[in-house]
Amino acid sequence: MRRAYIAGNWKMNHTPSEAKKFASELKRALEENKIDCRVMVAPSFVDLPYVIEVLKDTEITVSAQNMANHTSGAYTGEVSPIMLKDIGVYTTILGHSERRMYYSETDEIINSKVRLALNEKMEVILCIGETLEERESGKLKEVLKRQIEKGLEGVKSDEMKAITLAYEPVWAIGTGKTASPEDADEAQGYARSVVESLYSKDIAENLIIQYGGSVKASNVKALMAKENVDGALVGGASLTIDQFLPIITFNK
Ligand code: 13P
Predict the structure, then answer these.
(1) How much is the pLDDT for 174?
(2) Residue nearest to atom 2 of ligand 1 (CA)
(3) What is the pLDDT of residues 184-216, one digit of tens each?
(4) Which one of 4, 162, 164, 172 counts the least CB within 10 Å of its CB?
(5) How many CB atoms lie within 10 A of CB 102?
(6) DSSP states of 7-37 as a string?
(7) Contact between residue 181 and residue 169 where contact means Cβ atoms under 8 Å apart
(8) Is residue 83 in a domain?
(9) Residues of the domain holding 86
(10) What is the CATH classification number for the domain harbouring 187?
């Protein structure tokens, strides 16, 4: 039985003061509502200490959006997993399509981050997903297979419990176009089968696979009703309590 896992990726939004205020609203909403799923938020690096402080007595996971592939040293502008752990962050998103597209992160770089995070006993949400061009040219499966195989290269079976996959079709991110629940289910079922072939049926069946790309209150239920959709990685609609609360209470 896979527990639903809803995550909010704030991307480069919310200043520290806005983040603190929003985290307090989230905390209050959690006290007033029964939440049946795991909830995570991923603020920017500078917001993290403030959000951690506000959410410290709650069950909300606070995650980074990215991290360096080194623990320390001459890497100007980077943030290491050791630094994250020191402030109480034990989860990170890796391989988001915006990192792949705008910051040239390759499957190899992403894999080195995945392995370092696991070495540091951190949890990872590994993002995968095809562009519109790849989908339209029939390369969906090829792309997902490559991203999973390369992203997880060297990851041992016993480390897979620290991995969540997020299927985020690039064409559905921030565009208002959501993959249909059937499309999401099909792609995620395929991703699960790739994990099964790399590891085992048991590991594949226990793997949480989130869907991301224009998730909102109006479509979350239909997406979550699908067999292979175990959660959501939400961007725009995770930024205000009015939009995020109906998503994290989708199963009420
Ligand atoms: P949107 O929900 O804004 O489409 O973003 C999805 C996403 O990229 C989450 O990581």
Answers:
(1) 86
(2) 235
(3) 999 999 999 999 999 999 999 999 999 999 999
(4) 162
(5) 9
(6) EEE--S---HHHHHHHHHHHHHHHHHS---S
(7) no
(8) yes
(9) 34-39+72-236
(10) 3.20.20.70
